[in-house]
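Weekly modeling sync, notes
Attendees: S.R. (lead), two postdocs, one rotation student

Agenda item 3: backlog of single-chain predictions. S.R. asked that every request posted to the team notebook include the full sequence so nobody has to chase files. The rotation student volunteered to paste the first one in as an example of the format we agreed on. Action items at the bottom.

Example entry:
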Amino acid sequence: MRYLFDTNIIIYYFNGLTADEMLHQMLAESFNISVITKIEFLGWSEFASNPTLQNQARAFIGHARALDLSEAVVEQTIRLRQQFKTKTPDAIIAATALVNDLTVVTNNTNDFDRLGLETLNVNMKP
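Predicted structure, as returned to the notebook:
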């Protein structure tokens, strides 16, 4: 099974919230994210005032394979927004997963279950 990581998982993991060993293994190697996850994560305001933290974030996200907004992803995003009135970032993540046949790893399956894609719910704990 191939996975696409939702922004919330990336942020929680980076902040030291841990789940199980499987998640650690999945993120220890190259992992898939949508380009919107890269934008949301690196655009997080906490990084603006902390260059050290920003460098650590860039190093961490550098291991990711950021899947671009292909024309197929753009068209699927439009369909999801029209049909489900989904927020644009969630629609882009969902469309990226659908087009690339990936399972979305998230801490909030409510954002994705109704969109007809496979999800893996990971409960993050401090």
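Discussion: group reviewed the output briefly. The chain has one domain: 3-121.
Action items: rotation student to repeat for the remaining queue; S.R. to check formatting next week.
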